[in-house]
Amino acid sequence: MRITTIGRGTIGGGLARLWQQAGHEVTSLGRDGGDVADAEVVLVAVPSGSISEALAKVTGLDGKIAIDAANAFGGRDQRYESFAHEVKSHTNGPVAKAFNANSGVLFDQVAEQRVRPGCLYAADDGAREVTEQLIRSAGYEPVSLGGLESARALEDFVTGVFAKISPIFYRFAAPRDL
């Protein structure tokens, strides 16, 4: 798959490495932006307060599948229901919220785990399959929270609970699946 990450930090850079190791073709954009026309999917991994600013420097976004990985540590534009909805306002394509509840400092240890850690996500129908594939390619097991209407709950979970116990791996599963 052809992936472009917008953001080269802990999350964007870490996922780019994992996806390259899994055989995907990855291009990373930094603060100067660039063109994503050749990408099949775009990861938005920038501080939450700069999503619109970062995406304004990117061309070729229209209709792209996008995965938003932002958390509310850098501000929030209250005009949008969630950061994923803010991303969607720039891409006009299917969007998923994923990887925001996975500690990037542990990316290099994912493959060493006895069982795949979980990755919570919420996604539009058109982004679900690609998101699940990229979650698995990064070494995680996808755990769906439903549609994009669940993105804000996932963001609030991270700032309310997960940030207090991170960095950890986690596994959410039905009793029969553990």
Features of this protein?
178 residues, alpha/beta, 7-stranded mixed β-sheet, two-stranded parallel ribbon, 30% helix, 20% strand
DSSP E strands, number? 9
Estimate the global geometry from the Cα principal axes: globular
Q: What is the overall pLDDT average? A: 94
Number of helices: 5
Give the strand order, joined by hyphens, for the main sheet.
2-1-4-6-7-8-9
Helix content: 25-40%
The largest sheet is: 7 strands, mixed
Uncertain runs: none
Gyration radius over CA: 15 Å
Outline of the structure:
This protein is of the alpha/beta class and 178 residues long.
Structure description:
The protein is of the alpha/beta class and 178 residues long. 30% of the residues lie in helices and 20% in strands. It has helices spanning 10-21, 51-55, 83-91, 125-137, 151-165, and strands at 2-6, 25-29, 34-35, 41-44, 58-59, 65-68, 95-98, 118-123, 141-144. The strands form two sheets. A seven-stranded mixed β-sheet has the order 2-1-4-6-7-8-9, with helices on both faces. It has a two-stranded parallel ribbon with strand order 3-5. It is globular, with a radius of gyration of 15 Å. It starts with a strand and ends in a 13-residue tail after the last helix. 42% of the residues are buried. The model has no long low-confidence stretch (mean pLDDT 94).
SSE inventory with pairings:
Elements: E1 2-6, H1 10-21, E2 25-29, E3 34-35, E4 41-44, H2 51-55, E5 58-59, E6 65-68, H3 83-91, E7 95-98, E8 118-123, H4 125-137, E9 141-144, H5 151-165
Parallel strand pairs: 1-2, 1-4, 3-5, 4-6, 6-7, 8-9
Antiparallel strand pairs: 7-8
